[in-house]
Amino acid sequence: MKDKDDIQKMPAERPGDIIGDVTEGEYKYGFVTDVETDVIPVGLSEEVVRLISQKKNEPEWLLEFRLKAYRHWLTLTPPKWGHLRMPDIDFQAISYYAAPGKKKVPGSLDEIDPEIRDTFNKLGIPLEEQKALSGMAVDAVMDSVSVKTTHREALAEKGIIFCSISEAVKDYPDLVKKYLGSVVSYKDNFYAALNSAVFSDGSFVYIPKGVRCPMELSTYFRINASGTGQFERTLIVADDDSYVSYLEGCTAPMRDENQLHAAIVEIVVEDRAEVKYSTVQNWYAGDAQGRGGVYNLVTKRGLCRGDYSKLSWTQVETGSAITWKYPSCVLAGRGATGEFYSVAVTRNYQQADTGTKMIHLAPDTRSTIVSKGISAGHSENSYRGLVKVTPAAEGARNYTQCDSLLLGSDCGAHTFPYIDVMNPSAIVEHEATTSKISEDQLFYCNQRGIPTEEAVGLIVNGYAKEVMNKLPMEFAVEAQRLLQITLEGSVG
Amino acid sequence: MSALTQYLNVYRDSAPRFDANSAPALNALRPAALSALESAGRLPDRTDEGFEKTSVEEMFAPDFGLNPDRVAIAADIAATFRCDVPNLSSLLGLVVNDRFVPSATLLKNLPQGVTVCSLRRAALEMPSLVEEFYGRLAPVGLPGVALNSLLLQDGVFIHVPAGVRLERPVQLVNIFSAEFPFMAPRRILLVAGRGSEVSVLKCDHSQRSDTHYLSSEVVEIFAGEDARVGWYDLEESSPATARYCQVFARQEARSALNACVATLSNGNTRNEFSVEVAGDGCETHLNGLAIGADGEHVDNNTRVRHSSCRSNSSQLFKYVLDGESTGAFEGEIEVCHGARFNEAYQSNRNILASISARMHSKPRLLIYNDDVKCSHGATTGQLDAKALFYMQARGIPLAEARRMLMQAFLMDVVDGIGLEPLRDRLRHMVERRFAGEAASCRSCAAARDCHAE
Fold first, then answer.
1. For B239, which DSSP code?
2. Is the pLDDT of residue A102 over 50?
3. Does A413 touch chain B if contact means CB atoms closer than 8 Å?
4. Could A426 and B356 be called an inter-chain contact, meaning their C-beta atoms sit closer than 8 Å?
5. Cβ(A403)–Cβ(A371) under 8 Å?
6. Is A430 within 8 Å of B379 when comparing Cβ atoms?
7. Model pTM greater than 0.90?
8. Confidence (pLDDT) at B179
9. Looking at CB atoms within 10 Å, which of A108, A125, A166, A211 has the fewest?
10. Phi, psi of A295 (to 5 degrees)
11. Where are the domains of chain B?
């Protein structure tokens, strides 16, 4: 039998090894697909914006939109307020358009370049027939141009539109024109202006009145070509009494230089409609020394315009060298509900400054924020969130909980909530805790024969469960796996 | 043009006058302050992180008078001084604008070795002691501190040597007295030696309620090893008074700091606290309460930085905002790399009592170590409807029930105060404040025996 001292030492010594494992875990999706790509020269100018628009055969109004955004972007400087150490990005050293070599839009699965298909297979995207049977409609994005969308026909029967933005511009110009930029204006911020000027592709979803989307809609983003940024744009419109659950997943192959990813997601939710937006983000995070990795600088916002509408953001963030995103809800309809559930894991030299904004504009609006941060290695993980209750938001209610878990003594966990209340009938609550894994809990597990490594996994899983439970079934499995890969060695 | 320009111009025009009426130890900081301000070019405004709700630029923008020649300005003490604390036998001193006037009690009862005097006098009589501490905690790189250091001519110096326990609290009464808009740079240097004990009660008043005053105050508190320091700051000024008060404290091993700031009535107030917990095993309590009415504005900004091990800190700030008042709270806990076994808590609770009151709250945690327990919480809401109903059902009128609940809400801040008479007094003042009476009290006999130094 071990003496008391030995037992007490165990938990203290073992986490060191686990953290070593965690921080040294290699990125599993690091491969490059050798596809012929059509890349325009680096640099950004009005000509480049025109060229992108021309390559995509866009109508005049969209070119105008891009040019206005570009001209506004020229007047802006990159924001510096994040708790991030970010080297200056040379925006003239990036190529703003990369499309897979084949110009023809594939009509069936067989027409897709086998290499791309293999890439998606490695990522486990259910693009193949048997996987499509699992009930997912997939709009796969590879370097800007949407390659193939499955299940389109099934959706079309219900009047649901699910296609790439470029197709939508051609087929449904009125809808796109009406909603594009209505939630995230090109004047919103530096990266939003940049995206509006050069966005290449993305997804468009329209759910008609009273329709409940029968399946989860899903998009996989993937940055492939070296030295290209990805600027996709997602626009989701849920008309009265409709429902849709939308999944976004990302994996990116290993690259040495940093890649820029500045996306915009806009969501419009009408009367009594509900949108559930789930993200699993696993862009390349850089190696153990902090070299390389994706800069994920994203503007995501939903406008709950209708009465009693509901928007729910769920995110599992494990990747990216730098994450800078604040999925927000503008609660403009009476009784609208906004939700934000997030698990953000950082390790090595990753940095994340992420959170949400809940802007209560109408009476009886409610919002819930649950944010769980896990930091390991030398990483920095910050929660930054705004809860704003305007004078008109009578009876607004917010509950915020943000917890941070620290694995290792060199990492940082920070919380920056901004709470602005302008209505006395509002009830706003914020709670935050920061701690490491409790030694009591570890000891308890050890005592019952669970090795420390498994115990850490158990505790982390339990810690993140509140958020994981909010993910759709298919996604929860992948998210769980991702969490396991990220905390390799610590999760049994 | 920045509000800063007028101050820089005044200083450049009459730098020798500032120097002549001060002391070399204080003058020594001016060149660094001037160059810091010149390179900053302006004072913080709402575009700066941390100043979202309070623009220092605007606070300093009006054309205030300065008194570089230190012309004596009389003060009607009896009419102004309204915060007598019964049963509190204190060592009283007045600060009229920026001039320190000790009371007879203070001069008579000061224990051997303890210094409570004007900063200028201290800087002239014991320059090495003042130089050792003056400007060591307040970084001159901050525009507020730089401007204060540039224009400062006098202040208060409190020095309690090692092992001395000061039984009676030191009470400083800041009074604004001028017939015209006036700005006073104020400074307090509080040094508590190893194992000493001292409490300071400071209250701010304005003589005329319709004249604009601006107080730029910098406080430096040094708590030596095992020292126990109490810092209680009460503001009872006028709607036309602006106050920018920056407190910097440093705690050595096993020291305790209990600080409380109560804003009972004011105009535009910005308080900043920066506490560096530098030694192991310290205890820090930083509390505040604010009652806002009409157009009052209260902004408290706190920062507790743990760079050592095994310390505890707690922060509790409560606001009750009525009328069109606005409140802001920004608090930060930082636990540095290698600072283990610390426990730090922060709480901000607010009640909005009217439709046009506003509250902005930004509690923050910056944690660079895994062996910590930290939490913060913030709530903003209204009075509990059930509690109000319960009280009304028992025959208490609505208005009174509301008042009782609001008082009760603020009481846990008052209960944290270390001086019992002050605790009772503050409880009473809060009560009266809610009753709608100005918290004026009997003229204080102690105040009358103050002598010009």
1. T
2. no
3. yes
4. no
5. yes
6. yes
7. no
8. 84
9. A108
10. -95, 115
11. 4-385+441-448
